[in-house]
Amino acid sequence: MDWKHIVNYAFERSSEFHERLKRAGIGVSDIHTIEDLARIPVLKKDELPAIQHNHYPFGGIATIASNEMARIFMSPGPIYDPQSIDGDYWGFSEALQAAKFTSSDIVQNTFSYHLSPAGFMFDSALRKIGATVIPAGTGNRELQVQMMNDLQVTGYVGTPSFLMLLFEAAEEKGYRLPLKKAFFTAEKLTEQMRLFFEEKGISTSEGYGTADCGCLAFTDGEEPGLKVSSRALIQICDPVSGNVTNDEEGEIVVTLFDETYPLIRFGTGDISKWVDGYEGTRIVGVLGRVGSSVKVKGMFVHAQQLVTVMKEVGYERFQAVVTNESGQDELKIFVEHADAVPETVREKVKSVIRVTPTFIHVERLYTCTLK
């Protein structure tokens, strides 16, 4: 499958894509080359909640009915994400094989299996290559290190910061973790972390993807940066105009080779650039974000969703700041309030944005932002 096929297929079957081309005054007969592809307006990730709200559940993007999907997930936003078929729908087996995961591995999958698709993304990919999966999910550090020790787990999938926490818990228990390899995504692997894991005898690899698109790029140990997945076409574009750029930083815009959920010219909101000399095939990684959402512990926090829930709990003036001290993401919410914020408020906000916030009350705020 290639981008030409998916453009033609989506035009006939995806009402969202058909209408997007119609509004732009073009048809598929105008799209002959990759350069022509840039004429298609970018569909921004930040637009998905509103688009889906007007046409549940997938905003007219999907080409099959919701009751034909294998699973439906809800990511922060809220954004509904489909899984149309069982198996490696998100394509991460390609990345895991490049990271030398094999059928002889026992792998602890520490991504959540609840609502958002990350847990299933890696569970299905690991099963495709024949590895044994421990569906550990998030949290429960003591139980997780006990499983690693008892079952002699050889592989880890999750965020690097959580693996650091597991090593701390293992040290407290006097365990020597048997891990040999780790695959990270959703969070930056710092050089300090990488060296720490290497000292523990763990080979590390990274991947980049989204809940909407699945695997988009990954390290392969052969060349610099991250290799673009075979399941997508990536363009680096000006975040405002959508014009393609080959020698500057820009937004990662994806055309996904998926007939059931054909995201075409989809603006992820992530900023990257091409590795010099590898334009079109390798990106340097994620350099930042554009738009009104930020990533915290691998989960997106959308500004409007946070504003709405904060109003519901009685705080219309607030400032949300994401920090990363010692490699740990933390969402701090500053509020004007004389008293400490009740625990019920914290739990309510957490239940909506899916990230645990730290509330700090101050005498006066000068801005109300999410950054």
From TrEMBL:
UniProt-listed Gene3D superfamilies: N-terminal domain of ligase-like (3.40.50.12780)
Record InterPro entries: AMP-dep_synth/lig_dom, ANL_N_sf
Catalytic EC class: ligase
Entry's EC annotation: 6.2.1.30
Source organism, top-level taxon: Bacteria
GO MF entries: phenylacetate-CoA ligase activity
Keywords annotated in UniProt: Ligase
Keyword Ligase appears in the UniProt entry: yes
Residues annotated as domain AMP-dependent synthetase/ligase: 129-254
Name assigned to this protein: Phenylacetate-CoA ligase
Species annotation: Anoxybacteroides voinovskiense
Source species taxonomy: Bacteria, Bacillati, Bacillota, Bacilli, Bacillales
